[in-house]
């Protein structure tokens, strides 16, 4: 699992530019599913055929990025966020573009206090001599992502893009371990979640699943003076109850709880006060889809050094594999 996560987090794939990560995931699952396709928006859809009802599992493969909006005379790049960024997470962070150009994010020198820094007075420095020099390396519309190394201490891993490559790894391993199911399973690696769950919206509309489970990361409440939250690293995957976009269908929530208890898998209950996942849009597709979410606890989400625990992911694989093998009944 750790090697797979390291591989996935190293691949470039911001929202709207998921081709490299899509091909990396395709390579991992070829031979383990009956069909693989890419839809109009770019979602990767892998099917394990069966005679039963359709069940959709979704994990978004895009990562947050910085879109170049302007190159000034001195060669510095202004940008807009593609996804949610906190100013403090960006200052002096290294970023990389799809063509390998590396830069550093900083802010205008006349700003004296961090509280006065906004995305509007920040820039990316690629070491260019002037606008012409910068334009040979980067164009307006190009997207940069965090550029940081993967690291680990025991079961704990730290990396960029654990949101949501950790969950992609969970789905990949579930695909490999699932031998049979009473359902026809659609594993969907979605695009543009960070821009509003766009890929999951169209995929769910096309698939029309009987039930669905999204897999994503979630915040924790286990760091010093953090906002109280009953989720921590290493205590098992979290079963979502509620977030800003969804109140999880009780049948799906209870099915996950029952399966975890049956298999003796540690789990946590997640109530997320801010944010949402693909679950929210899948649940509202067409006339509605009973939907749930399995969440991987993750510290420092949307930073260049997100932190998660391998055992939470491995237990997530066990839970999903068991649930799909036994079947979901609503």
Model description:
This protein is α+β, with helices and mostly antiparallel strands and 330 residues long. The chain folds into two domains: 2-63 and 160-326, Aminopeptidase; 65-146, Elongation Factor Tu (Ef-tu), domain 3, CATH 2.40.30.40. Helix content is 28%, strand content 27%. The chain contains nine helices and 17 strands. The strands form three sheets. An eight-stranded mixed β-sheet has the order 1-2-12-3-13-16-14-15, sandwiched between helices. The chain has a six-stranded antiparallel β-sheet with strand order 5-4-9-6-7-8. Strand 4 and strand 5 form a beta hairpin. Helix 1 crosses helix 5 and helix 5 (162-177) packs across helix 9. It is globular. The protein starts with a helix and ends with a helix.
Q: Gap between N and C termini, in Å?
A: 32 Å
Total count of strands: 17
Indicate the radius of gyration in whole angstroms. Answer: 20 Å
The CATH class designation of the largest domain is Alpha Beta
Question: What is the CATH homologous superfamily assignment of the largest domain?
Answer: Zn peptidases
Question: Based on CA inertia axes, which overall geometry fits?
Answer: globular
The main pleated sheet reads as: 8 strands, mixed
**Fraction of residues in β-strands:** 25-35%
User: What do we call the CATH topology of the largest domain?
Assistant: Aminopeptidase
How many alpha or pi helices? 9
Poorly predicted sequence stretches spanning 5 or more consecutive residues: none
What structural class is derived from the secondary structure elements?
alpha+beta
